[in-house]
Amino acid sequence: YIVLFKGLLDRSDSAEELAGVLAHEMQHVIQRHGTRALLQRASIGILLAAMTGDVSSAATFGVGVASTLGTLSYSRRAEEEADT
């Protein structure tokens, strides 16, 4: 799904500019970036839990940190893919 907010419509200077933003967001959907990001985050969590045998709050915190760090470069790559 692609969600449009009124602010985007209000701030777009032209129909072409809005079309460019929509085309970019459509590429995220077409290339399944959201699904990939979700699977990547889940995989990191499962791997860390399997390695440590611990699913306590400390492990959960570690998963969150690792997931965030790991997806930063992933999201940059997804943005570049959506721009092409």
Number of helices: 4
Distance, first to last CA: 20 Å
Beta-strand portion reads: under 5%
Radius of gyration: 17 Å
Order of helices and strands: HHHH
Q: How many DSSP-defined strands?
A: 0
Report the uncertain regions.
none
Question: Any overview of this molecule?
Answer:
α2 packs across α4 and α3 packs antiparallel against α4. The protein folds into 2 domains: 30 residues, no CATH class; 53 residues, no CATH class. The relative contact order is 0.13. The longest helix has 27 residues. It is elongated, with a radius of gyration of 17 Å. The two termini are 20 Å apart. With 84 residues, the chain is mainly α. Helices cover 82% and strands 0% of the residues.
Features:
84 residues; 2 domains; mainly alpha; elongated; 4 helices; single chain; 82% helix
Helices and strands, with pairings:
Blueprint: H1 6-11, H2 15-30, H3 33-52, H4 57-83
Helix pairs in contact: 2-4, 3-4
Quick overview:
This protein is mainly α. It contains 4 helices and no strands.
